[in-house]
Specification:
The chain has 166 residues and is mainly alpha-helical. The protein is built from seven helices and no strands. It has helices spanning 8-23, 29-52, 57-75, 77-98, 104-123, 135-154, 159-162. The model has no long low-confidence stretch (mean pLDDT 88).
Length: 166
């Protein structure tokens, strides 16, 4: 398989999310950030399909994740904050436990962090300094990505990103 066939789902998610987030700078910011995470979920499943086919065991997880995202969208900023926390915790666990050989393993947590930051800003769940919306999430991403890079390397799972078999 051509190595470049592996990247389109992750790139679609990143570019699509950037367009959604940029277009919502002044209104509906939480809803558009939630839609960006939904786009990321769909692209993540597409990336898995490109990697090794779509296993039937993924269907229930994917359905639950989409329903959870739609529920969070319906709940507004509170739902966005809850989904952001849940998404960050989920990806921290999965990426640190199993390594992160897929591009969306790095894109999706950023989308959840942005959703959480926008929700916190709208709800005014922030303080000055480190607790300001965006700072806490940024530090979380930096720390978990550093640990994820180390874990993925220690498990030897970079082969998929670089074109080898996984």
């Amino acid at each position: 398989m051509i190595i470049w066939a592996r990247y389109p789902p992750g790139l679609v998610a990143a570019v699509g999310a950037a367009v959604l987030l940029y277009s919502s700078r002044h209104k509906c910011t939480v809803a558009f950030a939630g839609l960006a995470t939904l786009l990321g979920l769909i692209c993540m499943e597409a990336e898995y399909w490109v990697a090794h086919g779509f296993p039937s065991s993924e269907i229930s997880f994917f359905t639950a994740a989409v329903l959870l995202t739609l529920t969070a969208l319906a709940l507004g900023a509170v739902g966005g904050a809850a989904l952001g926390i849940l998404g960050l915790a989920f990806f921290a666990y999965v990426n640190l436990r199993y390594g992160a050989p897929y591009l969306l393993d790095y894109v999706q947590p950023v989308l959840y962090a942005l959703l959480l930051a926008r929700s916190r800003r709208e709800l005014d769940w922030q303080r000055s300094g480190f607790l300001r919306a965006g700072w806490t999430e940024g530090v979380w991403i930096l720390v978990t990505y550093s640990l994820t890079f180390w874990r993925t390397s220690s498990l030897g799972k970079w082969e998929w990103i670089t074109g080898g078999s996984w």
